[in-house]
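Try this one yourself first.
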């Protein structure tokens, strides 16, 4: 019995662990996202909207389709479902899924025979009138989204009713319905303000329906910000008075809800925020008082005037994060509603960069204007005041319910299961989770064994799938390192729901986004194009398999990957300085010196040499180019993008027959002719990169005369004629020592030989580049120590033919090679995408 008790302990521990993890980790549920009136799925802002045949809707309805195909509205707004009588949708809600929900109704009166702009109707749900006498007249220019928060009880169904007014009709283009995180809406009584001051605390907000009126990204620079809950935040410029916007890319420190400090009235110091309450970008900007405006005059406070309904009630959420002083305990100020109600804001209690928020209920007066403002407190050490975000939602009070609507379910796939079966399935899933977790723990404590890979192309015909639900990849990732697997929600949160302003690169595989993980580490996230249907999966698999087995200072490090929801996502360390190409041409970045360029080339050569001959067991990169060489803040180079790589012991099988892949301009001509891939193919591509570094022009430039389009061909022609110096980048021409240039150009010429057997190994290239750098350094030393010569790039020639070759500074096994389990988090890299 004792043995049984001991063996069950890990399972008990895992049960507790997964309970906590599932409780704290919120991911937007898959249902319901409905494309109304359509028989096909459409994607908007990453989210897939499915046909409305998947849910129940009333029998008395029809479909409208857009006639103007040139409309700028997205595909989600090209169909609509029309209701000519009391009608609507019915959604099944699981018994355990009761709680607060988001309901978003999308409306766009596109051009059609039904003339949607004439529609006039009411919308009712959850016992409340959500929209009263809603007119579509003003919806012809752009879509309108009405967003509600409401509570759905644990019943079997939930319906949204559309009731035409008079002889008109109703319509809707799309519907979103999903559950919010627990405690997203406060359960306690809230401070209640009126235009005359404080009233008694407001109770029962959980039983109310909230309609979004405003959601402001205070001090933000973007026109619109979309967060992980698909909420849109807009700039506050048009509503703000006084103050100046502030933006700082600080690391936002979420301290967790367990640190909330509540009193009986709902929070003396406010509530600790989370990345679900509001994203980093909201807390990284603010509007604060301008210098010189702090003199006690209330008219100089920073204020926001918002048009609201007269004599209505509103739920207000104010977001704060001190990014202004960056010092604890120096600033506190007042938050005003109508200048009569105020709350003392104490950001010093929360410390700088720690976000918090406070909820209120306010009754508007008869003017229809709601004023929110912040101003300094007389006792504050630093006289300042700020606000980071503001949400205003109308509390809907009008009852509205329509009975007797008949629904039909055409392709309903959500039939309820018997309760015992549901319990049994839940227990089975929980046991599976615990067993998987136990296996992961046991695997982590074993020493890692790295095995060599075969030359055969990686199989995409695996058996069982380890992909997330709905994955259609044809291969299993079960043999990859599970320790690198990341959740889609984690990546979604890091990239602010893959916001367009986070895009830092594009390529054939998809977009590359800049992200920040919860631990503050900056990452580059490469995401496959939506709807790629598994295309590029072999490259995705290869990249993971290669990078999970190697670690080197001059090779990009893989942080993780995700294959949930048919996604193919790779997460790398982020490199602030971007690609080598960014520093050579077609950008506004500062030009690199000749010495810096040599050092970057040497770093890249070290990485490639390690791939070919090091502990990795033999890897051919197959897509060496300047956009796949990354540079960190110290100009240390790293080779990236291993999706096309071939792996195996080069000494046993020096070539492999394979389909030609790579990038034109860098392709080895011998490989292109024979389809025989060798490590010398990488050498040729690297020779083209060396020419790019010297000449600062693309490998292919169609704007030039036909004989100069291909840099490799034109460079070799000029080298043979002795005119290569005419191609040198003017920014570095006067910096280069002639001996260093001679050695460098000879290296380029050897790399670009037509026959692979005439090319040097990458180790030879590395040695030559290091020698070229030593010649450059020697010239500078001679220049600085002698008054007889001035440094002009014309140093006296040194005989090179009899110089004894020294061992390379980067032989396999040197200090550049890092153990696979090392966490090299100090290095950051920027990812560039292969264009096949």
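Now uncover the answer:
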């Amino acid at each position: 019995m004792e043995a049984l008790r001991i063996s069950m302990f890990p399972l008990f521990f895992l049960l507790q662990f997964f309970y906590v993890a599932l409780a704290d980790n919120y991911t937007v549920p898959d249902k319901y996202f409905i494309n109304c009136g359509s028989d096909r799925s459409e994607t908007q802002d990453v989210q897939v909207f499915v046909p409305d045949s998947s849910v129940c809707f009333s029998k008395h309805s029809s479909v409208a389709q857009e006639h103007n195909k040139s409309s700028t509205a997205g595909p989600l707004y090209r169909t609509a479902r029309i209701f000519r009588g009391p009608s609507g949708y019915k959604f099944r809600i699981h018994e355990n899924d009761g709680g607060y929900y988001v309901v978003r109704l999308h409306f766009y009166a596109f051009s059609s025979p039904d003339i949607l702009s004439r529609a006039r109707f009411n919308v009712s749900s959850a016992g409340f009138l959500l929209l009263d006498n809603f007119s579509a007249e003003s919806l012809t220019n752009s879509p309108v989204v009405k967003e509600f928060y409401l509570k759905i009880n644990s019943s079997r169904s939930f319906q949204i009713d559309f009731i035409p007014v008079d002889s008109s009709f109703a319509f809707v283009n799309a519907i979103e319905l999903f559950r919010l995180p627990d405690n997203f809406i406060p359960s306690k009584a809230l401070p209640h303000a009126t235009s005359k001051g404080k009233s008694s605390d407001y109770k029962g907000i959980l039983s109310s329906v909230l309609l979004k009126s405003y959601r402001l990204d205070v001090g933000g620079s973007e026109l619109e910000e979309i967060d992980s809950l698909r909420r849109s935040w807009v700039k506050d410029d048009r509503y703000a008075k006084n103050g100046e916007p502030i933006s700082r890319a600080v690391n936002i420190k979420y301290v967790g809800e367990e640190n909330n400090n509540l009193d009986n009235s709902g929070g003396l110091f406010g509530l600790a925020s989370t990345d679900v309450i509001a994203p980093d970008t909201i807390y990284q900007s603010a509007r604060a008082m301008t210098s010189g405006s702090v003199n006690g005059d209330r008219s100089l406070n920073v204020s926001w005037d918002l048009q609201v309904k007269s004599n209505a009630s509103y739920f207000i959420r104010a977001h704060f994060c001190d990014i202004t002083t960056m010092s604890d305990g120096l600033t506190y100020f007042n938050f005003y509603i109508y200048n009569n109600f105020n709350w003392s804001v104490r950001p010093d209690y929360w410390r700088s960069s720690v976000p918090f928020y406070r909820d209120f209920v306010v009754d508007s007066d008869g003017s229809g204007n709601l004023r929110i403002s912040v101003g300094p407190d007389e006792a504050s050490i630093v006289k300042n005041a700020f606000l980071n975000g503001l949400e205003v939602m109308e509390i809907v009070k009008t009852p509205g319910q329509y009975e007797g609507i008949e629904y039909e379910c055409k392709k309903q796939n959500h039939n309820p299961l018997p309760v015992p079966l549901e319990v049994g399935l839940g227990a089975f899933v929980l046991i599976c989770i615990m067993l998987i977790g136990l296996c992961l723990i046991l695997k982590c404590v074993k020493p890692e064994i790295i095995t060599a890979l075969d030359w055969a192309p990686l199989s995409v015909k695996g058996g069982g799938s380890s992909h997330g639900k709905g994955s259609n990849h044809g291969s299993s990732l079960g043999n990859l390192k599970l320790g690198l697997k990341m959740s889609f929600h984690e990546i979604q949160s890091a990239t602010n729901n893959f916001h367009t302003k986070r895009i830092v690169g594009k390529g054939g595989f998809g977009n590359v986004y800049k992200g920040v993980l919860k631990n503050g580490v900056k990452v580059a996230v490469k995401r496959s194009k939506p709807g790629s249907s598994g295309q590029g999966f072999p490259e995705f698999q290869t990249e993971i398999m290669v990078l999970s087995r190697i670690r080197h200072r001059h090779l990009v490090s893989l942080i993780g990957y995700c294959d949930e929801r048919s996604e193919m996502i790779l997460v790398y360390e982020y490199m602030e300085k971007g690609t080598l190409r960014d520093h050579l041409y077609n950008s506004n970045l500062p030009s690199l010196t000749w010495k810096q360029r040599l050092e970057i080339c040497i770093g890249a050569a070290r990485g490639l040499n390690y791939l070919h001959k090091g502990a990795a067991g033999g890897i051919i990169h197959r897509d060496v180019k300047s956009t796949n060489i990354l540079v960190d803040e110290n100009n240390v180079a790293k080779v990236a993008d291993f999706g096309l790589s071939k792996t195996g012991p080069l000494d046993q099988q020096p070539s492999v027959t394979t389909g030609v892949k790579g990038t034109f301009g860098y392709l080895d001509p011998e490989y292109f002719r024979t389809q025989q891939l060798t490590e010398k193919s990488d050498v040729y591509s690297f020779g083209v990169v060396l020419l790019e570094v010297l000449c600062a022009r693309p490998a292919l430039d169609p704007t030039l005369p036909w004989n100069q389009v291909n840099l490799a061909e034109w460079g070799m022609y000029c080298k043979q004629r002795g005119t290569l110096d005419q191609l040198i980048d003017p920014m570095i021409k006067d910096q280069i020592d002639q001996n260093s240039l001679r050695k460098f150009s000879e290296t380029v010429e050897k790399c670009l030989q037509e026959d692979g057997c005439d090319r040097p190994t990458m180790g030879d290239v590395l040695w030559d580049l290091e020698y070229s750098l030593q010649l450059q350094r020697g010239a500078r030393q001679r220049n600085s120590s002698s008054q007889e010569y001035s440094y002009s790039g014309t140093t006296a020639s040194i005989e090179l033919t009899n110089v004894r070759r020294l061992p390379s500074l980067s032989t396999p096994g040197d200090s550049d090679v890092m153990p696979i389990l090392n966490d090299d988090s100090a290095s950051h890299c920027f990812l560039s995408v292969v264009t096949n």
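Discussion: The domain at 195-396 is CATH 2.60.120 (Jelly Rolls). The chain has four domains: 33-180, 195-396, 454-574, 579-826.
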